[in-house]
Amino acid sequence: MKTVRLSVPAGEVNLPLCVRTGQVFRWYEIQGLWAGMANDALLIVNPEGNRWSLSAVGGEPIPLFTHLFRMEVDLKSVQVQLIRRDSRWEQWVRALPGLRLMRWTSATECLFSFLCTPANNLPRITGMIERLCERYGTPIAEWGGRQWHAFPTVERLAQAEEADLRALGFGYRARTLIEVARALQAREPNWLESLAELPYWDAKQALMTLPGVGAKVADCVLLFGLNHNLAVPVDTHMWQAMQKWVLPELRGKSLTERTYRQIVDWFHERFGEWTGWAHQYLFTAHLLESQRKGE
Predict the structure, then answer these.
(1) Residue 269 has pLDDT above 90, yes or no
(2) Is the CB of residue 3 less than 8 Å from the CB of residue 54?
(3) Residue 77, pLDDT score
(4) pLDDT tens, 22-71?
(5) β-pairing, 2-7 with 27-30?
(6) Are residues 117 and 59 in the same domain?
(7) Using alpha carbons only, what angle is made at residue 125 by residues 209 and 160, rounded to the nearest 5 degrees?
(8) Domain assignment of residue 240, yes or no
(9) Same domain assignment for residues 112 and 63
(10) What are residue 211's phi and psi, to 5 degrees?
(11) What pTM, to 2 d.p., does this model score?
């Protein structure tokens, strides 16, 4: 395991806030450190002071950390842009210091993970993904009193039995995961990754041809896994936040294809290239408020 140190200016990254609010699902606090899996690499972070300790198995610590947390992006510049475009975002920027838009190392892992999210909650999603990795993933390392596994390959998931996945708690999602894995096998190599090169709407339409992939899951994969910063995942939290805080004209309406599109268009007009970041601040603010209220 390779260990290095990295200078992280105060306020640039709030690691717990980033990894515990629905952007990623395989991060844990263990013995005062933070450990997370990114596909087939384990990253361990000690976020103390301004010189963080980074260790990794299966990858180089600094490039891995930089990629996951988009460290090439100056956070203060992002925050300035958000507030300049809509002053309401100042309250959420101030309330969520160090919140960054995360970026997965594997679009495939991102896709299958977010297929577990509809009509679900964070603890249950995390448990489902861990059981999936323990059952079908390759062991990577032993650390912190546990075995860490890589995310399963498409080939392994395509061979899974629906009954086995149901036994792991996937319910109706079991069949979807297998069908998506087989659909990816039937397409050109790297088809999923190639969507990063398409315009946002074209990439979204292509993703939604996969079994079980609706607008919200597609936008999650585009935003977190394929670097499409125009994506706006609209789930229950985003819908309620938009109704309550941003677009009161949506109150009394239902989330439909039309109102979903209305929200995406509004973000594009207001925030442009900063849309994904603006989404993440609003989503996280509502998520944390709901958690405080026990909703």
Answers:
(1) yes
(2) yes
(3) 96
(4) 999 999 999 899 999 999 999 999 998 899 999 999 999 999 999 999 99
(5) unpaired
(6) no
(7) 60
(8) no
(9) no
(10) -60, 135
(11) 0.96
Phi-psi region of 272 (alpha: psi -120 to 50; beta: other; left: phi over 0): left
Q: Domain end: 207, 225, 243, which one?
A: 225
Per-residue CA distances from 147 to 57, 134, 201, 273 (Å)? 12, 9, 40, 40
**Looking at residue 48, what is its pLDDT?**
87
Do both 55 and 122 map to the same domain? no
CA distance 183 to 160: 14
- Residue pair 99/14 in contact (Cβ under 8 Å)? The answer is yes
Return the CATH number at 165: 1.10.340.30
Q: So which residues are the catalytic ones?
A: 216
Containing 286, the helix (H) or strand (E) segment is helix 275-292
What is the structure's pLDDT at 295? 67
Q: Which residues contact 270 (CB under 8 A, 6 or more apart)?
A: 85, 86, 278
Any idea what the CATH number is for the domain that residue 22 is in? 3.30.310.40
6 three-state secondary structure: strand
- Total domain count, the chain: 2
Mean pLDDT for 185-201 is 97
Q: How many CA atoms lie within 13 A of 228 on its CB side?
A: 29
51 and 149 assigned to the same domain: no
The answer to whether the CB of 206 falls within 8 A of the CB of 188 is: no
Kindly calculate the radius of gyration of the chain based on its CA atoms and give it in whole angstroms: 19
Domain carrying residue 113: 107-225
Q: Which of 225, 247, 264 is the last residue of a domain?
A: 225
Q: Is 7 helix (H, G, I), strand (E, B) or coil?
A: strand
Q: How many CB atoms lie within 10 A of CB 227?
A: 15
At residue 173, what is the residue type? R
Q: Report the helix count and the strand count for the chain, using DSSP H and E.
A: 15, 7
Per residue in 89-132, pLDDT (tens digit) is 999 999 999 999 999 999 999 999 999 998 889 999 999 999 99
